[in-house]
Amino acid sequence: MGRKQRLKQGDPATLDEFKKSQKGSAKKRKARDLGDSNDAQPPKKSKPQNGRAETVKSKGAKGKGKAKEVDIDEDSDEQWGGIAIDDTQYLDAITKFDFEEDDQGDPDPDADAIMDDENDDFLSGGPVHQLEFSDDSDAGLDDGDDFLKGASDEDGSDVESDDSDGPITAKNMERKSRALDRKAAREAEMDIEEAQAATGPQDEEEGGGIAFFDLPTAEDLEQEKEAGGLPPDELQKRIQDNAKVLKDFKTLAATGRSRSEHVEQLLQDIASYYGYNEFLTEKLFNLFSVSEAIEFFEANEVPRPVTIRANTLRTRRRDLAQALINRGVTLEPVGKWSNVGLQVFESTVPIGATPEYLAGHYMLQAASSFLPVIALAPESNERILDMASAPGGKATYISALMRNTGIVFANDSNKARTKSLTANVHRMGCKNVVVCNYDGREFPKVIGGFDRVLLDSPCSGTGVISKDPSVKLSKSEKDFQLLGDLQRQLILCAIDSINPESKTGGYVTYSTCSVTVDENEAVVDYALRKRPNVELVDTGIGFGVDGFTNYREKKFSKDMHLTKRFYPHVHNMDGFFVAKFKVNKPTRKKDVQKSAEVEAEEENAVVEPGPLTGFDAEEDQAIIDKWERQHVLKTKGIKIRPKANAAPKGSPAVTAH
Ligand SMILES: C[S@@+](CC[C@H](N)C(=O)[O-])C[C@H]1O[C@@H](n2cnc3c(N)ncnc32)[C@H](O)[C@@H]1O
């Protein structure tokens, strides 16, 4: 097995897959990850991970050459999406040696052995055969006859002869009768075995070993507590069994215990097994079906793949790939959906300290972080605000997509964080970026009239728990309320900072690295209701799960399906949410109908959002023109004497790059 293939992180195992692997009934599975999926559809379902992924044998591992060996789905040439054919050939050339050397002639014998063992276990299990012979009554009888062939009755006589069609006489009647009794008893025994065999393997497929699952009693739980809790493997088993019961509650529920009791126990077990507080456990659990929720919690225990973004201001992705391969880095494109992302599988050098890194040829950046910028789709010469931008992963990507033209205001309210933002802006060679340090809610008073605004909002981080497990215990209901207030205020300010008459844009992208509805759909819905001049539009990302149009008792805009959710257990990326708005000319005030709910939310809001008319485009243009003139003079070495009170009140403390 090649290094790259060994390390390519598949999506986490589903509950069923996990169960199968536990029971030794796993079928051979195809290792793939986001990069292997087709353009618009990253893998929908969880794939093997951790130890399991290492044992999986891919299609690609069988053949020679890059197309088969590199890409598990055999379409790797297209992975470099958007590049010309000769680029692909070039990439073949630069990657072939590495991949061939690793993978050629090594069809992953370990994986075969393990998976075959598992299959063998499954197939050699007695119950399957027993099930077969008992399924058909005739066959059953035959088999029964075979089975009986070797048997003798107590006195050593041959049962078969007793059961023959020979005439019944007074002499042989009793013996024949006893033989028939024994045969009947034997058949009854076989019936029982047959029934057990039938429940055994079927359950393995659909949630096995749970026929006798019952919830622990209060007494059991007390004893467990005294013993310091269940051992992890038993706790995990109870989670799985309980989840299976909940999946088919009518059939599998033990009598006398309600569904809510099962759910309550499951939540408690998840909280203690994965180490979450109860509040967050329930909040996250409620987002999914039972089995998907467990996949999600499981995925949060696994690190996401390491990815980097090629900085097209300084290099091309293929050149970067070549340079890093030469340094002993094993990598491949993240997927067809990105033409700048590379997934790093293995490196003999620290990936955050290579000469290429220091020279700004790439950014260490999670794949999910590309998505809001893809949705924003900045164009050259535009004027863009990144409202909460530190440490600059997205701002520098925006700058690169604009090819260093136009202007990007990279703002962050946290002054300390603007240092790393500034450092990244310099390292990446972004010359069109202005770093500023305001509370985002001060926009558009500070400056507005933007073609596009990215609000990569401060959030709870429930999408990045694998990176920051402290979230599991640190988030409370209050945090979500406060965050929601801030997010609602920021999103209105983002919308109000747009120039609705922009010739090229007029778009706001809202994103979070959280999966909760409070921070995502609820915020977007609030913005839609508060600003009737905005509408949701397609993110243009091409994959992701649709946002909720309703969630529990809440009903959201019917367009909410245009927003996209990304999950660790589905997309093998950090959990993320992306929404894109088109900002139209403001509707006249008298046309704006505020719902009672919005009014109530406004009353509860901590700070009133900035007014719709807080920005004067003409005044702003005059200031920009003036600064540009001064910049030209400066570059010509002409000193400009500062005038007293020259800067208008409230003008940003900016650093230009
Ligand atoms: C998710 S992070 C942004 C990550 C950034 N977009 C990137 O790609 O590197 C959220 C940022 O919001 C900033 N922030 C928090 N409250 C803010 C506010 N009221 N106004 C502006 N920025 C804020 C935080 O300091 C943090 O850097």
TrEMBL record:
Active site annotation, chain numbering: C513 (nucleophile)
Domain SAM-dependent MTase RsmB/NOP-type span(s) in chain numbering: 296-584
Localization (cell): Nucleus, Nucleolus
Alphabetized UniProt keyword annotations: Methyltransferase, Nucleus, Ribosome biogenesis, RNA-binding, S-adenosyl-L-methionine, Transferase
Residue stretches of biased makeup (Basic residues): 21-31
GO cellular component: nucleolus
Residues where S-adenosyl-L-methionine binds: A388, S389, A390, P391, G392, G393, K394, D412, D439, D456
Secreted keyword on record: no
Major subcellular site: nucleus
Compositionally biased tracts (Basic and acidic residues): 172-189
GO molecular function: RNA binding; rRNA (cytosine-C5-)-methyltransferase activity
Composition bias, Acidic residues: 99-121, 133-145, 153-165
Pfam families listed in its UniProt record: Methyltr_RsmB-F (PF01189)
Record flagged with keyword S-adenosyl-L-methionine: yes
NCBIfam families: nop2p
The family this protein is said to belong to: Belongs to the class I-like SAM-binding methyltransferase superfamily. RsmB/NOP family.
UniProt protein name: Nucleolar protein 2
Organism: Tulasnella calospora MUT 4182
